[in-house]
Write a structure and sequence with these properties.
Layout: H1 2-22, E1 26-27, H2 33-37, H3 43-56, H4 73-79, E2 83-84, H5 93-100, H6 102-110, H7 114-124, E3 127-128, H8 134-138, H9 145-156, H10 164-168, H11 175-182, E4 185-186, E5 196-205, H12 211-217, H13 229-233, E6 239-248, E7 252-260, H14 272-278, E8 280-291, E9 294-308, E10 336-339, E11 349-358, E12 361-377, E13 398-402, E14 422-443, E15 446-457, E16 460-461, H15 467-472, H16 489-492, E17 506-518, E18 521-530, E19 544-553, E20 557-566, H17 588-591, H18 603-606, E21 614-624, E22 629-641, E23 646-660, E24 663-674, E25 685-697, E26 703-715, H19 719-722, E27 738-752, E28 757-767, E29 774-777, E30 780-783, E31 787-798, E32 803-815, H20 817-824, E33 839-852
Length: 853
């Protein structure tokens, strides 16, 4: 018994020692004030430690505590058992911010748009949230009108936001809204007035053309003497880009971008006029002043700039098409004016813009003079216009429409000496723009705006009213005209400045937009008209477009309902409204490139950024059932295509299950039906797609994911696919609907060797069988061929505090449609000039350097 008592006493004496060893020590260089307060010291001592670390210097050792007046030797020795001091890198405030936001900065640096530059600027130069207006807050990614309204309600009543915790308490704001604002805003005025920062980015990319582009560009014309694009493909050269940005204090911002696109001549070989037309630059200044205690901002831009208003129906000059772009959440558009040094060339605006903002008024006036690529008629092809009418010398002024060319052709714009009846010509059209936007807020959270612009041209836009005249310039032979169908009405509805009724040198668009927020419901919309032959003050007598939406938001649920209606004749080149498909989808520019007089005309569809003329309803929701189960994204869209009145329906839903924080299971299903209103219609088709994905977030931010996708399409039979390939044969076989299947497997990984070195990559294997597959790889989308494999790997390395390098290598092997066609025709696969095109292996390298200080 005595031995047991002694053993118990001995254990009790040792217990505090074990307990002391098990105490989890805190790092004084990263600990919060709340953590420091829990140490065995007074609250004042805790505050002194926190203030020293925050405002004076990080701790290099425990002995630095003695530099604090309230910490004596005894207190320091007591703290040794409770704290640790991590190694600290001597970084400036800017470098430390880059360190803290490394993931977001890496993602934005990989994107190529004026919006990514705008977000980068906000990340590195946070704005005081108490001085922002509602539209400024809505411009931040992932922020809804309801989140912005929750903040504005407070600040307009001088109930200022003091910190993130205070922001989170704003009445009506969602968790995601506050979290998405957090990195872009501060809560006090900046103490730095005059600080210079500079960014330089270099990119080298030798990525080949997509498989569709190669096949389109290598088409041959029978019976016509043309300059084949495939000859210029043989002279392929990589893309090289240089971009520089600078910021000085809180007011000055600027940048310049110089690049050489694929197959273009070196920047050193261009003359001064070409440099001036191709280079992009801007300088901006923001002035802040007060009138009657109201804060006013005046932003002035010179050079290239991006401008957008409302729902994008009147003006949004981005060059990227995004289907189902609702303008909400992470698909929001940056409204107002921002500098632009992106690679957007065709829809760039160059000139000057002024933006004046105060709490209930926003006014923008902008002007631009810039050269645009355009599709020109052959100046000598008088037969296209019904013979020589005595005005043949003016045919060289005829433009079909704008075009964003994959390969910019520098033909002689005076004579259009290309050999084509229609040809895309680089910088063929001079466009002068004068526009405005006036927005007024009658009460907090509500606004109404008026927008408009007028464009003057130095050439006429001409679309023949007679379809035979129009399609004679587009299609090679009379026999192929049977492929013209009702969807090609979209081509006939292009805008003309010269018609039988009028002749003018301008295009004019105007409209109004609205927004109001009531509690947790937001109403938004825009109406626009393009002047044609109606009266200026009369509504709906010209081609028009409208988008209207209702959005409601709760903490774990949101719901969006949207309606859009675009007339077929609303041909506004700066329209970026919501739609399922881009302009010219399912026309001859899309489906029949082999019958076009110029295969480059398919770029009118491939690179189109305008929405197609549609009318329909769109419903979208997100719901968090439990902490581990979420309906991430679900929508249903029911719409009608205006060109042929085809009714379609598309549904997609994605369910995510997280049994534990590092592990995610995702299940996504898509179902689409074209001609859903008529089961007997020959052109009815049904598409089903199911995707399963597992993602594991490992230690040190490593990640591994595996994805499988299965597609199937029920489509109508086509005689030329199911009958004898012999042109003299008879199409006598009967076939029911066709079922096409395809699948896709992806393995994606991220491994961090340390804080400065990371490797990312994926392996993809797919089988198309006529079904289109795509892959979001390293911040870009890649469309694949009929079937094959692909592997890419990217190395991210921070060489020093200010120098970052990104190196990507990709190898892609796939079969083309040529192989399927030869198999169908039983043609022997001989080793010929075209033999190498049956299976294609592509290798590409991408290098990006970022230098920041």
């Amino acid at each position: 018994m005595k031995k047991l008592f002694l053993a118990t006493m001995f254990f009790c004496l040792l217990l505090p020692l074990f307990a002391a060893e098990s105490i989890e020590k805190i790092d004084l260089n990263i600990a919060s004030f709340e953590q420091i307060k829990h140490l065995p010291i007074t609250e004042q001592q805790a505050k002194d430690i926190y203030d020293y670390r925050t405002y004076i210097a990080f701790f290099e050792s425990i002995f630095d505590l003695r530099k604090i007046e309230s910490i004596d030797q005894k207190t320091m020795l007591k703290l040794k058992d409770y704290v640790i001091i991590s190694h600290f890198k001597g970084l400036s405030d800017t470098e430390q911010r880059r360190e803290d936001l490394a993931y977001k900065l890496e993602r934005l640096n990989s994107e190529e748009s004026s919006m990514s530059d705008f977000y980068l600027d906000y990340l590195m130069n946070q704005r005081n949230i108490n001085e922002l207006f509602m539209q400024d807050i809505m411009n931040l990614p992932g922020v809804t009108p309801i989140d912005a309204y929750a903040v504005i309600k407070r600040t307009r009543n001088e109930d200022y936001v003091k910190d993130y915790r205070d922001l989170r308490k704003s009445d009506g704001i969602s968790y995601f809204g506050a979290r998405n604002m957090r990195d872009y805003v501060r809560y006090k005025p900046s103490t730095i007035d005059k600080k210079f920062s500079f960014d330089y980015q270099f990119q080298y990319a030798d990525k080949p053309f997509d498989s569709e582009e190669e096949e389109d560009n290598s088409s041959e014309d029978s019976g016509e003497t043309i300059v084949s694009v495939s000859k210029r493909v043989a002279d392929y050269s990589p893309e090289v880009a240089n971009k520089m940005r600078f910021r000085y204090g809180k007011s000055w911002n600027g940048g310049i971008a110089v690049w050489k696109k694929k197959m273009e001549e070196s920047i050193f070989d261009k003359d001064s006029d070409e440099h001036w037309n191709d280079i992009k630059f801007f300088v901006s200044n923001q002035a802040k002043y007060k009138i009657n205690n109201d804060v006013n901002f005046v932003n002035i831009y010179a050079g290239n700039y991006h401008v957008a208003f409302g729902q994008g129906l009147v003006m949004d000059n981005t060059d990227e098409y995004r289907s189902r772009n609702t303008g909400m959440g992470f698909s929001n558009r940056v409204k107002g004016v921002i500098g632009d040094i992106s690679k957007n060339q065709e829809y760039a605006l160059r000139g000057a813009a002024v933006e004046w903002k105060r709490k209930n008024t926003n006014v923008v006036i902008f002007g631009s003079i810039d050269k645009k690529d355009a599709v020109l008629y052959d100046s000598n092809a008088d037969s296209l216009f019904g013979g020589d009418d005595g005005n043949s010398k003016n045919n060289k002024d005829m433009v079909l429409t704008y075009i964003s060319s994959t390969v910019r052709s520098d033909y002689d714009t005076e004579s259009n000496s290309s050999g084509y009846k229609l040809a895309p010509v680089k910088d063929a059209l001079e466009e002068k723009v004068l526009g405005y936007h006036v927005e007024f807020e009658p009460m907090v959270g509500s606004s109404i705006g008026l927008s408009g612009y007028e464009m003057l041209y130095d050439r006429h836009f001409y679309v023949a009213e007679d379809p035979d005249i129009l399609f004679n310039s587009i299609i090679i032979s009379e026999a192929d005209k049977e492929k013209i169908k009702s969807t090609d009405a979209e081509i006939q509805s292009l805008y003309s400045t010269k018609t039988d009724d009028y002749s003018r040198n301008y295009r004019r668009v105007y409209g109004f937009d609205w927004r109001t927020v009531i509690n947790n419901v937001a109403f938004q919309g825009e109406y626009a008209e393009m002047e044609k032959d109606g009266k200026f003050l009369k509504i709906a007598d010209d081609p028009k477009a409208i988008v209207s939406s209702i959005y409601t938001q709760y903490e774990n649920l949101n719901f969006l309902m949207m309606y859009r209606d675009y007339d077929l004749g609303y041909d506004n080149p700066y329209n970026r409204g919501f739609s399922e498909h881009q302009k010219f989808d399912d026309t001859v520019f899309d489906k029949y490139s082999h019958i076009l007089t110029n295969p480059e005309l398919q770029d009118l569809y491939e690179n189109s950024v305008q929405p197609q003329a549609e009318r329909g309803f769109f419903f979208q929701t997100r719901y968090k059932f439990t902490k581990s189960l979420t309906l991430n994204h679900a929508y249903i869209d029911v719409w009608e295509r205006k060109s042929d009145l085809r009714k379609s329906m598309r549904f997609q839903g994605e369910l995510e299950y997280r049994p534990s924080h590092p592990l995610r299971y995702r299940l996504k299903y898509k179902h689409q039906v074209n001609r859903h209103n008529n089961d007997a219609d020959r052109s009815k088709s049904t598409t089903d797609e199911i995707t399963m994905k597992v993602t594991a977030n490992l230690s040190r931010y490593d990640q591994l994911s595996v994805e499988y996708r299965y597609n199937q399409v029920h489509m109508p039979p086509y005689n030329y696919l199911f009958n004898n390939a012999d042109p003299d044969g008879q199409n006598t076989r009967v076939s029911g609907n066709v079922l096409m299947r395809g699948d896709y497997v992806l393995v994606d990984y991220i491994h961090n060797f340390n804080d400065d070195l990371k490797v990312q990559g994926s392996f993809v294997m797919w089988d198309g069988n006529g079904i289109s597959h795509w892959d979001y790889e390293d911040m870009e989308i890649d469309f694949m061929g009929e079937g094959g494999t692909k592997y890419w790997i990217t190395l991210h390395d921070r060489i020093s505090n200010n120098l970052y390098v990104k190196l990507k290598y990709k190898i892609k092997s796939y079969k083309t449609q040529v192989l399927d066609l030869r198999t169908w025709t039983n043609e022997e696969l001989e080793s010929s000039a075209n033999g190498g095109e049956l299976k294609v292996t592509e290798r590409s390298v991408f290098v990006q350097l970022d230098w920041k200080f």
